[in-house]
């Protein structure tokens, strides 16, 4: 190793977390029973520009957009809600999701904020062709989309695999990102036992696994949620994950990088460039994101359980300060 190379040491895995992982994987035996609760679904017809859906008292409008990327253009799909002159909040989803992951947030925020929930490249109704699927590359393309939409400054909320893209976007756009609600992804510490999906998504069998959208969604939500999600919400999630091309597009992200590479990039290149307050959002008992990795009192806070979290997150997204490590 060169004398000036930096060694990045994995964090030891707490015993509590090992027990939680074992309990989580034991749920795999329940997948077939869980799937019996899901109705048979097929992809929804593609939405046209201006199509509307109603989420409680909030109306969301579907929008397509072609923005620069991959040497030509990238087709994006997003939904928007809220007043056109309101503070802007951008939402990036994870796997196996789409803009729909945020429908409760849109319902909660859409009366006060201008909300943009984007189907990431490779998901939902956005671009699925070959191209640049590096997290950094997709962030550059998202910046081009936001430029085209004339979004000057905004708060960003991410979840799961939307977060590595968000990490690059926050570093790339500097002062234009007002606040970053960073959800459900490793930050400064990492253990290889916590990302078995790297091998799963880079396997030659990944496209066929993802093509069975119902089973994949049921498995993911059974493993990763404490409480059962409404069947109607899961059915829509399956529909949004069933569009042609998703099963081959999503693995391109994992073949373009690795969890270790992302972790090193955060520590060496990205976190030093973040200029906004950052709120880390994750479950206190989540075995995949150990709370033991966050021991600094400056980065620890407890949000109330359940619906009250929405109001706390609204404050962070809009007008209050949060802290980051």
From TrEMBL:
Coiled-coil region(s): none
Region: Disordered, residue numbers: 38-69, 305-325
An example molecular function term from Gene Ontology annotations: epoxide hydrolase activity
Ranges of Polar residues composition bias in the record: 309-319
SUPFAM superfamilies, alphabetized: alpha/beta-Hydrolases (SSF53474)
Pfam families hit by this protein: Abhydrolase_1 (PF00561)
AB hydrolase-1 domain residues: 87-290
Matches recorded under InterPro entries: AB_hydrolase_1, AB_hydrolase_fold, Haloalkane_dehalogenase
Protein name per UniProt: Alpha/beta hydrolase
Superkingdom, taxonomy of origin: Bacteria
Gene3D superfamilies: alpha/beta hydrolase
Keywords assigned by UniProt, alphabetized: Hydrolase
